[in-house]
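Q: For a teaching handout, I want to show students what a protein-ligand complex looks like in token form. Below are the inputs, and the small molecule is 5-amino-5-deoxy-1-O-phosphono-D-mannitol. Please produce the holo structure.
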Amino acid sequence: MCGIVGVTCLQGKLSSPAKIIRKCLEKLEYRGYDSVGLASIFKGMIVVRKGKGKIEEVHRRMNFDGVPGNTVIGHTRWATHGAPSDNNAHPHIDCGRIVAIVHNGIIKNYMELKKKLIAKGHIFRSETDTEVVAHLIEEYLNKGFKPYEAFKKAISHVKGSYAIAAIIISEPNTIFFAKKDSPLIIGIGDGFNFIASDIPAFLEHTRRIVVVKDFEVGYITPTNVFIENLHTGKIVDLSKRLRFISWTAEMAAKAGYPHYMLKEIHEQPRALRETINGLGEEIEQAANMIINARRVFITAAGTSFHAGLVLDYYLNSIAGIATIPLIASEYSKYVRSVKHGDLLIAISQSGETIDTLMAVREFKKRGAKILAISNVIDSAIPRESDLTVYTRAGPEIGVAATKTFTTQVLVELATVLKAAELNNSLDVSEIADLRKQLEKTPKIVEKTIMKHEAFVNSIAEIVHRKNSMYYLGRGLGVPIAMEGALKLKEIAYIHAEAYPAGESKHGPIALVEKDFPVLFIVLDDENSENILGNVTEMKARNALTIGLIPEHFEEFKEVLDHSIKIPLHDHLISPMTYTPILQLLAYYSAVKRGYDPDKPRNLAKTVTVE
Ligand code: M6R
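A: Here is the structure, written as tokens, with 5-amino-5-deoxy-1-O-phosphono-D-mannitol included.
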């Protein structure tokens, strides 16, 4: 849930390593922004500057760029153990100030370790789980272990999840690291090396990367990278792990947009096109896994769960395959029934969401096969799955998922069409038609965004003054409505509820009074007559009605207060063409309310804590 980074360089190779680390942290701030800090080794001493607040604020107080030294580690925090505070900010140090450490994850047995260390005389300065590791390393150093051995010994006591980077004064040009369940990447340079939670952090400096795997430990120096398995001691052959990142640092930056979210909404046509171009033979393998499965479970969290509901609709209505969709954090209810032959489809843009990862592990343990849909190559969920279909959305920095949702839907539809072809559940000509529509989707999305952005902004002028709103749909419109409501909630902080329109009369319509906003997702499908009835019911209660409608649906225009007309296409494509409009509505509502849509309060991009 936090971002960690470190660099070590030869003297003069990088000008101001601390400034570089501050800039790397800015790129990681989406992972958490409760506090921030840097530590370095300089003239045989550990220098630490840290504090509560976002990077910009703390930098103004502390001048991070002035931290001296060629070996620097940094951290941006999303609080888990201990409130956001100066003391709980990372890096953490030991009693003798000979070790500094940054950590992303949760050390489950920290209380037990802390008690033992306190009994040995260690004094703790924070309430964090992380600090125990600094004291553990100190303990082993004091026993005479060499720095790397002391680091490994300390790590061997830790239970839980971690990506850890540590500096020790007796090895001033080295950063030690260890990983389990939290992401950790090495960036390899010429006369310098980086370590970070995510690639965009150091992409400006190098595109050569090595992904560290679970239970691996090692160290970087300015000219060397060493990785081994913590338990077996097997040394990693780096030449086999080395990868070259083709996307640029600019692609990860805002490219002139005021916020990452807006940039990422506009990037959708390109992300969809790249995802189409990237579809390979894994689509057929995935389709085979689905049609041969005894039962198909679908799991995910948040926006990815809404993509899961879209997949549920596709599999039932296109391929005639019944599914069991489940919110990842609720997986335990199902585990006793899971058997060999079952399939779990796990959807996660980050590939690191802990709830989804835990569901994957439990299902796998009980013999289910795992099919992942993810945006991050080599992330935890793909690594633990039998097969992964990747979206090609590129890095998504805004906390709100946008382009990753529409690209997830695209790979889902491509996979389900293949399944329908293999199990003969849909006419060959219909499949061919839908494939053509899929090809055209990036263009339709582009046109829709261009045509409606200004109008959506004007609707946000109304919506941003409201406290509550309904999003209604039927059929495939329901997950679209759910995704729209989640966007409004999470970035504009407006209460929004989505439910199947047919449910209105069973309770929710009681809340509707004059000017209560109700947004309808109207698709070109068999539900249009019924949903027109729902719009009329809401109008009769003087609700403020907004509709996303197919452009030829004249009768809706007459009843709705505001209509956003979506170009004609098969309704199965709608999650990709309608959702960007809802993303824009949430975005402009958030901005008009004065909020930063990229960093919504209480949220982090990737939830790695259960
Ligand atoms: O990385 P994942 O797709 O597994 O993330 C799942 C959710 O945490 C994520 O979609 C979250 O709901 C976003 N804030 C939605 O915008």
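A: Two things your students might notice: The first strand starts at residue 3 and ends at 9. The radius of gyration is 25 Å.
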